[in-house]
Amino acid sequence: MFKNKRFLFTILILMSASTMAGCSTKSSSESKKSDAETSSVKKKAHSKSKKAQDTKNKDLHKSSSVAANSSSNTNQTTTTNKSESNTSSNSTTNQTTAKKPTASWSQEKNQKLSAFMKQWQTKMGQSYQGTYDGKIADHYGYKFPQTVTSGQINGHVDIDDRPVNLTWSTNGNNGAEYQIVAAATKDSQNMDRITYLFAIHNGTPEAYYTKTTNGDIVYFLTTRMQNLKKDSKI
């Protein structure tokens, strides 16, 4: 009987040890499994972190590339604008420095004016005495060209309601504001004389006329007869 109890007790001890060993083995297995799962989670987390970092790096590279392209485009635009500005500036400078063509006078033009006035006065039914024919144009005592060359008429002339001084020029290049190159007065003994002055005003050909009969000022106006201005060949 005692032997049987001892045998049973031994079996219980062995069973208990086996159970404990099984538990220990299970616990160890579960621990290893837990470690493996933890390692897997860490690996997944690391992989996600690396992907996120790679994505961030790509975004940064893309942003840097866009910024570089933007900077390049800006530089190109700035260069283009500077080039256009320089071209415009050079063009403006060239236009500014280019001298404006100015009218001039010569003996040949005197002859052309004489020929024109012969035709024109015939058409108008009038007769004119002109300096272009070597004659004196006498407007009630103001005799051209002497009244201009002597300075007699200075201070006694208005053109388009503005007091001016006249100069006489044989070539139209003396630099004065009003250069008279020819004059013609209607040949009349009555008080209906008309005098024309052919002039170069600031480099531009002009024709003025007056019907002033008395007073201290001779009033000239720019002629409205465009054919006289155009065809007189000034």
Automatic annotation (TrEMBL):
Q: Where is the DUF4767 domain?
A: 103-230
Signal peptide residues are 1-21
Task: Tell me if Signal is a UniProt keyword of this record.
Answer: yes
Identify the domain of life.
Answer: Bacteria
What taxonomic ancestry is recorded? Answer: Bacteria, Bacillati, Bacillota, Bacilli, Lactobacillales
What keywords appear on the UniProt entry? Signal
Q: What is this protein called?
A: DUF4767 domain-containing protein
Among its keywords, does the record have Signal? yes
User: What ranges does the record list as Basic residues composition bias?
Assistant: 41-50
Composition bias of kind Low complexity appears in 63-97
Segments carrying the region annotation (Disordered) are 23-109
Q: Compositional bias (Basic and acidic residues) spans?
A: 51-62
